[in-house]
Design a protein that fits this description.
By secondary structure, this protein is of the alpha/beta class. The protein has 9 helices and 21 strands. Helix 1 packs parallel to helix 5. The radius of gyration is 21 Å and the shape is elongated. 48% of the residues are buried.
């Protein structure tokens, strides 16, 4: 079977669905191609579900800009579409005196990014809000929250389909070719097809880089190396000890073993940092032995954690474009101005804060597609 549409979005995660929604609302005939059996089964369903404020990212980076924009867009979307969320706020904590300078630096970086609502709390002020917390000082981020990610994705899908977008599940992209008349993809699965479009957006998440390598006519030198970083989560077997999210001062590869709450009030801890050899045949099982490291990290801010209270829960994998030990890299949204191919956009390294930024990422992609 051979078809032609206006636009193809590869990947039905939260970012792909947001982009498909924007394309459909602009009047394009859109098909969303997803290799898995349902929407959002990769990174989108295996994260902390946190709506980030935009605090940690380098000034003028896409992560900073799109997170700050996306946060407001996401809260507005949730209000207008009835998507459940809770603006719980979070505390970023310094657990020793030698972390105070790093905590102050977080506040400065946040202000550079336009996040001006952080509140410095002394040890006593933090303890008055969270009696179980151990810290030297904390920053309160009142605009941080949590969201029902699946409900959000369903709402995005609903908006896209209302404007005529179609979703093809169990449809892996096998290869593609960039031609003068557009981009043609060979799609496998139960109903193999050849499909062409003037616009193709590669939002394949963990496999976006691997997919880009299969495109005949695309300059391979423009494709970054890919790395995969697994994050394991442990749940708490007792009542949640905090009403805010609790984050330690950030680490190099992530935000440390933090405490988040799900929509039902269940406390969970994670993610840790476990680099994988590659992204093929990812094992999402959580090794209970990794909990030993969790206890030590968590007790720095919650000393009352008892042995045996943590239970292996779930894991996710972050699509990284930097090697272990290297500085974190920015989102790479690679459009026509970068590679010279009209109507084509690659999204590489879309990890946290991808969920928070998703609506703003979609807006950025639309702007790149429309730029001459």
């Amino acid at each position: 079977m051979s078809e032609r549409v206006d636009a193809i979005v590869i990947g039905a995660g939260v970012v792909g669905l947001a982009i498909a929604r924007s394309l459909a609302q602009s009047g394009k005939e859109v098909i969303i191609i997803e290799a898995d059996k349902a929407i959002g089964m990769g990174t989108s369903s295996r994260n902390s579900e946190v709506i980030h404020a935009g605090i940690y990212y380098p000034k003028d980076s896409l992560k900073a800009k799109l997170c700050v924009q996306g946060k407001e867009m996401l809260y507005d979307f949730c209000d207008s579409h009835g998507v459940p969320y809770k603006k719980l706020g979070k505390l970023i904590v310094a657990t020793s005196p030698d972390q105070l300078d790093a905590l102050k630096a977080v506040q400065v970086k946040a202000a550079e990014n336009g996040v001006n609502d952080l509140v410095w709390l002394s040890k006593d002020e933090a303890r008055s809000r969270e009696p179980n917390l151990s810290c030297e000082a904390a920053l309160l981020s009142p605009s941080t929250g949590i969201v029902d990610t699946h409900a959000f994705m369903l709402a995005l899908q609903g908006d896209a389909e209302e404007q005529g977008a179609m979703l093809a599940l169990n449809s892996p992209v096998l290869s593609g070719k960039i031609e003068e008349s557009g981009i043609t993809l060979e799609v496998g699965g139960d109903m193999p097809m050849t499909i062409s479009a003037d616009i193709v957006v590669n939002a394949a998440g963990l496999y976006a880089i691997e997919l880009a390598r299969t495109l005949d006519g695309f300059d391979q030198k423009l494709i970054p190396d890919d790395y995969f970083c697994k994050g394991n989560y442990f749940s708490l077997g007792t009542k949640a000890p905090f009403s805010h999210l609790i984050y330690p001062v950030p680490e190099k590869a992530g935000l440390g073993v933090h405490l988040t709450l799900d929509m039902g009030g269940q406390a969970r801890f994670g993610p840790d940092v476990e680099w994988l050899d590659d992204g093929k045949d990812i094992d999402y099982a959580v090794d209970p032995k990794r909990g030993e490291i969790f206890y030590e990290a968590i007790r720095r801010y919650w000393p009352a954690l008892k042995d045996g209270d943590l239970h292996a829960d779930y894991s996710g994998v972050r699509p990284k474009i930097q090697a272990p030990g290297e500085e974190a890299r920015d989102f790479m949204i690679q459009g026509p101005k970068d590679h010279g191919i009209l109507g084509f956009v690659n999204l590489f390294g879309i990890e946290s804060p991808g969920l928070t930024s998703s609506l703003a990422i979609a807006q950025e992609v639309m702007e790149q597609l429309e730029a001459k």
